[in-house]
Amino acid sequence: MKNLDHTVISGWETIRFEGESSTVEEEMIAVEYPLTIVLNGEEFATMVCTPTDLEELLVGFLASEGIIRYFTDINMLNIDQERGFAYIEINRPVKDLTKAHSKRFIGSCCGKSRQFYFQNDVKTAKTVMNQLSIDANQCLNLMAQLQMRSQFFKQTGGVHNAALCTVDDILTIRTDIGRHNALDKIYGYILKNKIPLANKIITFSGRISSEVLLKISKMGIGIIISKSAPTNLALRLANDLGITVVGFVRGDKMNVYTHQQRIISKKTALYES
User: Fold this and answer.
1) Which of 207, 203, 254 is nearest to 229 (CA)?
2) Cys-Cys link to 108, which of 19, 37, 178, 179 (CB 3.0-4.6 A)?
3) Got the DSSP string for 173-203?
4) In order of start, what are the domains of the chain with their CATH numbers?
5) Residue 110 designated active-site
6) How far apart are CA 248 and CA 271, in angstroms?
7) Active-site residue identified among 49, 109, 110, 139
8) pTM, entire model
C-alpha cells in the first residue's frame, strides 16, 4: 500500500473467510503505543495512544486533568519515542499533584480504564456562555468533511477522529485509537497555538460520554457534533454547562439534544429559547 504511515497503521497477514472460500491478505491494523509520563522526575501515568502529535496529546492531557492551565506552564517537554517515555517539567511541585492523582495506567479503550478524570472537574470544567450558532446543513457538511478525510479509519476501522472547526470548514484533524486522546490532541493544539474559541466547534467520530463532554467544557467550546450517540450523564452535564450536543449526524439526519437554540435552519430556528 502506498504512503503507509507506520505510526498509525501496520500491515498484518490475515486469513479472510467468506462463505466456503478463504484468502490470505495483508490487513491494515491500528498501531497501539504505550507512553509513560515522567512529571518533574516522578513517574505519573502511562497512556496508550496512537504515536502521532504526541506533544499536543501530552499538553492537552495535562490541561484536561487540571495539571496545567497554559502551554507556558511547561518548562520542558522531551519525548523519547523509541523508549516510550515523555519527560515533562512544569512550574509547580508534583507533590501537590500526587494527592489527587495516584499513578495509573490510562488505557486507550472506552470505559473504566480512565478512572481519575473526575477529581479535578470541579476546578477545570467551564460553563460555556458564547452564543455561536450554526446552520443545520453546516453540521451535516462538517461531518461529511470529517468522514471524507478520515483515511486511517477507512484503512483500519480502529481509530477515532476529532476536528476543530469553524461553522464552514475543518481547521485541523487529530487521530487516535482513543477518542479521549484525539480530543486531548486537539486541546494541545489549541493551547500551543493560542487559538481563540468563541467561534469554534468540535466535530467528532465517537460516542459522547461524560468524559468527552467534560473535555469539551474544559476547552470552552459550546457545540459538539458527533456521528455517534451521547450518554445520559453527558447530556445532563451538557445542560448544566451550556453545551449544545448534536448526535447521530449521518447523511441528512441528526439529533439535537441540548441547548438547541444554537442550531438553526436556513429559514427559521429549529428551537427558540
Assistant:
1) 207
2) 178
3) EEEESSHHHHHHHHHHHHHHHT---TT-EEE
4) 33-124 (3.10.20.10), 134-264 (3.40.140.10)
5) yes
6) 18
7) 110
8) 0.85
